[in-house]
Amino acid sequence: MYTCADCKILACVSGTKDTMPKNCPMRQSTLMEKAFANYAQEENSRFYITSSSIEAAGYCQWPRLKETMEFCKRMQYKKIGIAFCLGLQKEAHIVAGLLRREGLTVVSVICKTGGYPKEAAGIPAECKIHPEEFETMCNPIAQAAFLNEQQTNFNIALGLCVGHDSLFYKYSKAPVTTLVAKDRVLAHNPCGAIYCADGYFEDRLK
Ligand code: SF4
User: Fold this and answer.
1) Topology classification of domain 63-205
2) pTM of this structure
């Protein structure tokens, strides 16, 4: 089992592989080399080098939104998909406008598309927010299907719910980046709970 999250040696960072821990994934040289070989594939190489160029060009200067727009431009994408949450429609509108200003075609699909009641997907009453009321289910598989149908080059996930985002990633044919990770409590800043996990948020994380 690998436990990089708990490692204090960080031989990977320093390049001193002779000090790597016993359970270091770098000891699995066959698997490591097999994975590494994928960077040589043309589709991965350009994608990876471009993303690294963004990191270097805007390091500690560009917010993620700027990095995302710049990545789309440097990859010479023509059509961008946005899969967004109803609760962030205003934000999706702003992002779409900024991308269009850069000359990109933008297709956006809301999470509630389809208009199905939650019951249609087997969600029981006790798993609804207001069990007595009509609630539209989120439909991330359809969001992916419609962006696939539109043949977007690259998709942006904007505020999709935990798990719904996973289904969107699973069904999207185009590569996906997450611009906004939804957190209804922390203004979409999940790190707030991590920073305060042993303090103000300790009880709320149990
Ligand atoms: S790759 Fe090896 S050295 Fe790097 S953090 Fe993981 S266990 Fe530590």
Assistant:
1) Rossmann fold (3.40.50)
2) 0.96
